[in-house]
């Protein structure tokens, strides 16, 4: 396999992390975060993406990241104020960057429709930054590195263009690490007018050449509006793999002598402290830029220039070694292939089953509860449970990974609908199994779209109702009794119940004279075929209704509910299992077989009286529950365990709610109890069986099937129709 | 003409340097005409090999020319300041 492909994969994985970091940093800044470390993190994120993209020759990604990074650098150095407008543009740029990354990942290097326009905006921001005076509105006074430039009274005119002579000699390692001299040169020549000279004197004849060695040395003279920092950044990712020297040529005459060139001064101080040029941080050069007037006002409180050298070094790209040290400190994490974790979880599942089997055997052997064996077994059970919890925790992830995709969605939908929206998230750190998280994104996306498109009123209507123009959509996650609960709420007009009922009647979903409670009307929106939008809108109506959301939540073993207050807004509440590896089940018996019904689907259990059960002809039966009728499905017959239905008084009915909110009663022989079971895929180990979702292994070593309630209900309904 | 022609691969990245070297070694001792019209990407290591070949042919007293070059190849040479590789080819092109 191509080793490059593996590196490439890693790059894209890291890109995802960087993009997340980028967005959350920008959002934090939008929310008033003024910590210099935040903007540094944002800058680093874009910078790393650019660097990685360089290694893989992803041209449009590099180009855009570069422009973006330049603008961020202006912001980082305090020359560009982080006003709300600027941050909005930055957030859109982050979106475009994310798109470019994903298209590059898909192997499409075609650019982005908004790329050019946004590049221009960013460039305009970076270009205008020096002259931009509205920085006063945001209080950036305590911005850590700003005082440095203010400490010296620099003239505010633009520095004269200067030239740098860059001597660059790649080592063989540079190529071996999939870096390419040609690309570095290309990036370097982009910085200004350049003249490239190549020294080929070390190239041997064909007989002696090693194709994987490095013989060439380039001397590039770059002139124009650039600085040493920008030049060194080009080579940042090949730091130890090349010989590099950058020398200023014809530097602004006289500046050094008059003592105004603080950059050179600081560089000298740095050079004294650190012997080689290569490793000396070059950031101080950046300080030569003129200080904008508002910043200069801060001069009196500024610390003496020399004392700020080290903080400056901290916030800029550091030498490789220092960088690695910091990374190691920051998070002791390792990247593990998900397959390995899955396998471990699987094995622990086996262990739990095995432990249960052992416990049962010991019981059967008639050993006393207080015997050493039984006690040891109890301890083993506790340990097993702890191991299981810990292993599940490995795969648990904070819902943040899904939540952080939502701000972008909100921005896009807000722009499309013309409704100003603020997204508030809560409980982002709530953890849930990765397998659940992955399947959470689609329903959440749909619900948020729906909340903005249908939930929130137009700004005019909001004004009329005395609400602030900006609507609020809240996304919250919390743990509640062993499950994760996610709420999506809006402060819109709430559900228009009359309209919902009208539509449901019109579409034949309910009878015209049906009397429904408010709650029942609210839940009508989950019915298949229900869509309140008069026209299919671009945003919510993509052929996906709330019934699809409900179905995908149910497929995860979850439930969804809506509560709505007219004029105040609606709240969708989803409750999901924390994992798809174990399940809370009701263990029941049918014709001597042990089956498991997922607890989440069960509303109540009841012992039917013979007079409540009515036959509809054939084997179809209904049961009367509090005045209503629901189909009574004999599980034994549905799965083919028996040919004649069990007498009504001989069994227990489980009232369940299936797909689309339809209720039915599953009729079983007896209930054994409630238990957490380890889910084993039947498809992976045998094949798909209609009516059976999965299997588990019980303490006595027998396999018990986990019922697929929706299929059983659907199949029985079909048969009932045939019979009727 | 008994010129042998060597058509360069599309991507002359680091993986292409070794095969390129071998191909050039095989052609040694005869006048060589290099066809770079297919080249889409030229990297530093392949450039080294080409420069080495040019020098080797010169030592051998044999003609070496870049007969055809794609814009990307020409661009790559210009970018890396290896115009000596292209300069010769221009002269050769003109004399044809």
Automatic annotation (TrEMBL), chain A:
SUPFAM superfamilies, A to Z: ATPase domain of HSP90 chaperone/DNA topoisomerase II/histidine kinase, CheW-like, Histidine-containing phosphotransfer domain, HPT domain, Homodimeric domain of signal transducing histidine kinase
Record domain Histidine kinase: where: 297-580
Protein name (record): Chemotaxis protein CheA
Positions of post-translational Phosphohistidine modification: 47
Species of provenance: Phenylobacterium kunshanense
Record-annotated HPt domain positions: 1-104
EC number(s) from the headed UniProt entry: 2.7.13.3
GO BP term, pick one: chemotaxis
Top-rank taxon, per record: Bacteria
Annotated Pfam families: CheW, H-kinase_dim, HATPase_c, Hpt
Record lineage: Bacteria, Pseudomonadati, Pseudomonadota, Alphaproteobacteria, Caulobacterales
Role summary: Involved in the transmission of sensory signals from the chemoreceptors to the flagellar motors. CheA is autophosphorylated; it can transfer its phosphate group to either CheB or CheY.
Gene Ontology terms: cellular component: cytoplasm
Any one Gene Ontology molecular-function term assigned to this protein's record: phosphorelay sensor kinase activity
Keyword annotations from UniProtKB, A to Z: ATP-binding, Chemotaxis, Kinase, Nucleotide-binding, Phosphoprotein, Transferase, Two-component regulatory system
Catalysed reaction, written as an equation: ATP + protein L-histidine = ADP + protein N-phospho-L-histidine
Cleavable signal peptide: none
InterPro entries found in the cross-reference section: Bact_Chemotaxis_CheA (IPR051315), CheA-like_dim (IPR004105), CheA-like_homodim_sf (IPR037006), CheW-like_dom_sf (IPR036061), CheW-lke_dom (IPR002545), HATPase_C_sf (IPR036890), HATPase_dom (IPR003594), His_kinase_dom (IPR005467)
Domain CheW-like: 582-718
SMART domains given in the database record: CheW, H-kinase_dim, HATPase_c, HPT
From TrEMBL, chain B:
Alphabetical list of Gene3D superfamilies matching this protein: STAS domain
Domain MlaB-like STAS span(s) in chain numbering: 6-81
Top-level taxonomic group: Bacteria
InterPro entries per record: MlaB-like_STAS, STAS_dom_sf
Pfam families: STAS_2
Protein name from the UniProt record: Chemotaxis protein CheX
Organism (species): Phenylobacterium kunshanense
């Amino acid at each position: 396999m191509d080793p490059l492909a593996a590196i490439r994969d890693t790059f894209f994985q890291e890109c995802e992390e960087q993009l997340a970091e980028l967005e959350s940093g920008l959002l934090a800044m939008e929310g008033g975060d003024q910590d210099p470390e935040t903007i540094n993190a944002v800058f680093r994120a874009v910078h790393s993406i650019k660097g990685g993209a360089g290694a893989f020759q992803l041209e449009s990604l590099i180009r855009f990241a570069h422009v973006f990074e330049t603008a961020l650098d202006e912001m980082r150095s305090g020359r560009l104020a982080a006003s709300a407008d600027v941050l909005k543009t930055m957030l859109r740029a982050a979106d475009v960057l994310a798109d470019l990354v994903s298209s590059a990942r898909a192997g499409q290097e075609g650019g982005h429709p908004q790329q050019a326009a946004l590049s221009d905006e960013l460039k305009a921001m970076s270009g205008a930054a020096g002259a931009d005076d509205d920085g006063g509105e945001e209080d950036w006074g305590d911005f850590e590195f700003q005082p440095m430039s203010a400490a010296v009274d620099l003239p505010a005119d633009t520095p004269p263009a200067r030239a740098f002579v860059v001597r660059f000699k790649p080592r063989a390692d540079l190529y071996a690490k999939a870096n390419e001299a040609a690309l570095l040169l290309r990036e370097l020549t982009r910085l200004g007018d350049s003249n490239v000279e190549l020294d080929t004197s070390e190239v041997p004849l064909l007989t002696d050449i090693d194709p994987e060695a490095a013989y060439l040395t380039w001397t590039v003279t770059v002139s124009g509006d650039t600085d040493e920092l920008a030049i060194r950044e080009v080579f940042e990712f090949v730091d130890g793999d090349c010989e590099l020297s950058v020398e200023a040529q014809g530097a602004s005459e006289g500046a050094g002598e008059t003592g105004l060139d603080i950059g050179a001064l600081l560089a000298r101080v740095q050079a004294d402290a650190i012997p080689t040029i290569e490793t000396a941080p070059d950031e101080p050069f950046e300080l030569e830029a003129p200080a904008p007037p508002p910043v200069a006002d801060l001069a009196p409180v500024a610390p003496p220039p020399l004392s700020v050298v080290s903080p400056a070094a901290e916030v800029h790209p550091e030498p490789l070694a220092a960088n690695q040290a910091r990374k190691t400190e920051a998070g002791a994490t390792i990247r593990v292939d998900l397959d390995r974790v899955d396998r471990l979880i699987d094995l622990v599942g086996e262990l739990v089953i095995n432990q249960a089997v052992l416990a049962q055997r010991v019981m059967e052997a008639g050993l006393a509860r207080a015997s050493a064996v039984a006690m040891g077994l109890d301890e083993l059970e506790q340990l097993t449970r702890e191991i299981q919890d810990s292993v599940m925790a490995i795969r648990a992830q904070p819902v943040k990974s899904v939540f952080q995709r939502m701000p972008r969605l909100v921005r896009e939908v807000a722009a499309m609908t013309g409704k100003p929206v603020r997204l508030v998230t809560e409980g982002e750190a709530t953890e849930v199994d990765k397998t659940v998280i992955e399947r959470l994104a689609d329903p959440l996306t749909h619900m948020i779209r729906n909340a903005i498109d249908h939930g929130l009123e137009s700004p005019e209507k909001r004004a009329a109702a005395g609400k602030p123009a900006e609507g609020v959509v809240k996304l919250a996650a919390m743990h509640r009794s062993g499950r994760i609960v996610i709420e999506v709420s809006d402060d819109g007009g709430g559900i228009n119940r009359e309209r919902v009922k009208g539509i449901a009647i019109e579409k034949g979903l309910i009878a015209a004279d049906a009397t429904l409670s408010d709650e029942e009307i609210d839940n009508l929106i989950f019915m298949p075929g229900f869509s309140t939008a008069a026209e299919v809108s671009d945003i919510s109506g993509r052929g996906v209704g709330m019934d699809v959301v409900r179905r995908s939540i149910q497929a995860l073993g979850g439930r969804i509910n809506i509560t709505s207050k007219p004029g105040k807004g609606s709240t969708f509440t989803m409750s999901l299992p924390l994992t798809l590896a174990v399940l809370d089940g009701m263990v029941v018996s049918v014709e001597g077989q042990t089956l498991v019904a997922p607890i989440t689907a069960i509303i109540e259990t009841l012992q039917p009286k013979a007079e409540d059960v009515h036959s509809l002809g054939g084997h179809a039966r209904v049961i009367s529950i509090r005045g209503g009728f629901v189909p009574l499905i004999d599980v034994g017959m549905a799965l083919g365990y028996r040919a004649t239905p069990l007498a009504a008084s001989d069994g227990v009915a489980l009232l369940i709610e299936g797909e689309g909110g339809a209720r039915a009663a599953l009729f079983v022989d007896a209930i054994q109890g409630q238990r957490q079971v380890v889910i084993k895929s039947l498809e992976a180990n045998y094949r798909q069986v209609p009516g059976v979702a999965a299997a588990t292994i019980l303490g006595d070593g027998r396999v018990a099937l986990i019922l697929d309630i929706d299929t059983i209900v659907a199949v029985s309904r079909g048969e009932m129709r045939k019979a009727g | 003409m008994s010129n042998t022609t060597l058509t360069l691969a599309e991507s002359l990245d680091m993986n292409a340097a070794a095969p390129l070297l071998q191909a050039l070694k095989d052609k040694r001792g005869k006048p060589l005409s290099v066809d770079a019209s297919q080249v889409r990407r030229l990297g530093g290591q392949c450039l080294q090999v080409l420069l080495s070949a040019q020098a080797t042919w010169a030592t051998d007293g044999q003609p070496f020319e870049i007969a055809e070059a794609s814009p990307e190849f020409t661009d790559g040479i210009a970018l890396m300041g290896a115009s000596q590789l292209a300069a010769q080819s221009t002269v050769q092109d003109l004399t044809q």
